[in-house]
Amino acid sequence: MKELDARFSHECNLEMTARWDYITDVTDPNKEDAANDAAVRYLSFKGEAAANSSLFGYESFSDDELYRRFRFLAKKGPGALGQQDLEEYKLLQAGMETIYSTATICDYHDDTQCDLTLEPDIELILATSTNWEELRHALYSNSSIHFLLPLAGFDNTGSYWLNGYTVTQREADKYTGGQPLDQQQFKAMAEEAWQTVSEGLYKKLHSYVRMRLSDVYPGQVDPTGPIPAHILGNMWAQDWSNIARHVMPFPEMPSFDVTESMVKNGWDIQRMFDSAEDFFTSIGLFPMTPTFWGKSVLNQTAWGRTIVCHASAEDFCLGPTGDYRIKMCTEVNMVDLVTVHHEMGHIEYFMAYKNLPHVFRDSANPVFDGSIGSEDLNGAWWQLREALQGVAPPDGARGEEFFDPGAKYHVPANVPYIRVVILLRVCYILFFGFVCPSSVVILLRLFTLPSGCYSFFGSFIPFFRVVILLQG
Fold it and tell me: How does the cofactor bind to this protein, according to its record (predicted)?
């Protein structure tokens, strides 16, 4: 197992290095080819390791940790595809990421200016404009392609992702009080969690925001239906902070947006990352490494190349040695300040896990339900968005000639999304209950912060407990 663990780290590092070179310079076709080749090699290696691990009768192992390592290692997936399918799989995924990162649209007011990118141009329009048609133009000018296929041992990619959340009876007896969890049970748990959030808070918030937006766009917002997706201040209608000026109650109160203050006080990108590091070290977590500061790409303009602007934190799979980086097209504003803290939080997890076996350093793989067929993908996408988000296309139904899901980074990048639901309902309660155990009863009221936990800055002792937990 030690030899296999070392090889996993090596192969993963080769793949991550090639991928980093590509996602920080997406217009270089040679780097895209190299990243695809490295990804195919790594997936093939994982498929080989899964096949070999499956040959052992690990169900009878007496060592619980060794059993769990083999169960994870034996999970087949993309690596079990044939070489041609695997190469096509990675080629299409890379192509979607390139389209997402390099696609441009024309300015609504000047159709000769056709160099507007998603970040920062389109996002700025959606955040600041109140021109209905300009917002519609900005929303509808992004599209992509997608590739769905079953993976060995699973009905579809969603089933493969969801497997990471399952708990066998043996694992349940050892770690979770005897309660196993299969895929269907997990789906039911996630659905119940979302319904609790939706009925308890989201629908009420949605109704209030819809009412206020009807004043901004008279006669264009259905007073009882979904909100048109292009007027919520965000490409994906998921972050409504940019429309706070329209919908916040008590407008005479000070603004919660600190962007103006950041600019006034001379904040730059470096200070934003320094402040995030200060926060994490104040609660007993880890400072960023020299490699992090030397190799992260935090400013696309200074970098001078086109990168995948969707912010991401990357672990280069070196375990105790450690190589962690962030890639982000950072702007000096509050939204990006929050994102900086979010991404650095991932780095903190990477560093906490660094001494664990490679298979346990791999994050849990969330699920995307593979039940939507490619023949009705776009329509089903909007049906899902209306059911869960309460948003709709500005002009009614969208045809299958479009691929609107491709405008959401997680789709072209093949990144699962159920983690958001789990974070909101389950991890929120568990986390606050862990660092503030005396307040666990209050936590059962969703989104109610326990007394004494409004600020975590400098809260060393409770977060020291988190670090010990993460390190196994």
Answer: Binds 2 Zn(2+) ions per subunit.
